[in-house]
Structure formats: structure tokens, C-alpha cells
Amino acid sequence: WQHKYSDEDTFTVVVPELGPLKIKRGDILGIRVHRTTVEQEFDLPGQYATGMNQWLDTKLEVDPDTVFHVTASGTIQYPNYGNSSMGPEGSARFGQINGWLTGTLVGRVGSDGQIFRIGTSFTGGLSGKGTLQLAILSNMGNQPSNGAYHIKVER
User: Fold this and answer.
1) What is the per-residue pLDDT across 22-68, written as a single tens digit (0 to 9) for each?
2) Is residue 27 classed as helix, strand or coil in its secondary structure?
3) Under 8 Å CB-to-CB from 58, ≥6 apart: which residues?
4) pTM of this prediction?
5) How far apart (Å, rounded) are the C-alpha atoms in residues 91 and 82?
6) What is d(CA 108, CA 114) in angstroms, rounded to the nearest whole number?
7) Least crowded by CB within 10 Å, which of 42, 107, 123, 147?
């Protein structure tokens, strides 16, 4: 909403859903602002691994002013490696990539954005503008995997 002062006793508030409203200052008892929360939940199958350069585009637009919260749970398994399981925090069994465990849930903003660690939880804002994209950090190449991470994004 926007407001425009028309004189000292009244002002006009423009609400997209209602249009302009003229309000007397003396009629205001208080002002409460509600932020709309956008939520999206989905499963991220193990095929979305950075080693294969596969990223899931959440279609959620973010910019430097957007603060969002991501939570993740679930497991993926690699059948060719003894069906080893790992969760969104990754597994030390398969080593690290840039200091993060293989299997860690990671994100970026836009297709060229800087990769950041999510793990089981991330809250914050990021530089850049675009859609939030998610992947599983992997050095497994084209290895098949089973399972998925369940992800919830709120902004």
C-alpha cells in the first residue's frame, strides 16, 4: 500500500485490492502490517546432483531484499556404493567438495549465482536476483541414486 497526504486531518491510502481510501487521522486506532508468506514444498530426487550439473528451479523469485528460510530432511542412497545413505548435511564417507560434504543440499540464485550451503536449514538473504535453484553437492559423476530430500521454502 501507499499513502498520500491530502491535508492535515485526512490522508489517502492506496490498496491494490481496494483502490484509494480516504481516512481521517482521528479514525485510526492502530496500524498492523501483515507480511504474506509464500511456501513451497517439494521433493528433490538424487538426480539433481551438481556433479551432473542438474539444478531444480523452484520458480521462487528472490532478490537482495528477500529473506527466505529453507528446511530439508530425507535421505538419498547410492546403490553402486553399498547403498550408502546420506541426508541434506552430506556424508564424510565420500569426501568433501570446497569444504562441504558430498550429499549436502546447496542452492544458488539464478543459473550463474554463487553456490551456498543449505544443509538441513538456511535462513537469510543473498546477493543477486533470479529464481532460487537447488541441487545436491556431488562428486559421484553420473552415478544413479535413490531417495530424495524433502524441502520446504518460505519467504
Assistant:
1) 888 788 877 776 566 768 899 999 888 776 678 999 998 888 888 88
2) helix
3) 40, 42, 131, 132, 133, 134, 153
4) 0.73
5) 14
6) 6
7) 123
